[in-house]
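Following up on my earlier thread - several people asked me to post the actual chain instead of describing it. Fair enough. Here it is, all 246 residues.
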Amino acid sequence: MKQRLVGLIAAVFFSGSMLMLTCPGAGQDVTTGTGANNSPSGAPVHLSARLSDLRDLALLDSPDLTSEERSHVLIRWLAEERAEPVGHAPGYGGTVIDTSWVQSQIIMSMGISGDPRLLTAMADPGVRDGIIIALGWMGDASRTSELLRILATHEQPDVRALAATVLGRLGASEAEPGLRAALADEFSREGTGPGGVRTVYPVRQAAEAALRMLDDEAAMQRATELRRAFVAAMNPGAGEEDPEQK
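Reply from S.P.:
Thanks for posting it. Predicted structure:
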């Protein structure tokens, strides 16, 4: 197993909408391009074949890239990460950065900047769960049962946690039993902070937050607006449609 993230600097920060980790040797020579520079898969050939540095997620903010190209790159990076997972490295607060975290960040980026129509048409079984979560992040309310399956059974805890977050973000009231079951998720990791060693349960915490959203009137209103925006994105020019009436 390649230790691609060994030597990670212990710092997490936000840049725009992308959550990234700093580490030495970031892909400084990676550039973006469109049109004739695309590979047959639709991904720009100037972007590396796999994500070797989480800072490279910021490259997808380039205005030279279309949402379709971003989607192709992220799908490729997720497939490569699942095929050859990264090793463990220390992250912020002493927590561990591993393939679970890396996969969740790729999926979240897919939900933020991917193309919903392209992702809906994708059928690659190796990245199917990631695409389901990304579409849910965008507002696809038709995938609650699949998100619940991911929450209950996915092998990567940070992906399970992201599924819980998406269920809350969607305002999926029917997911409440599954979210309550996730409060007993056994995965934990330890880290060090100002208060000393602490134990974190990412899936439990995400489920708790999602349940609070289901009880929050403002959060439920935002969920309705998110679902409407997704319907509009999938049907450009067709006007707004209430997702509850579909």
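The first helix runs from residue 67 to 83. That should answer part of your original question.
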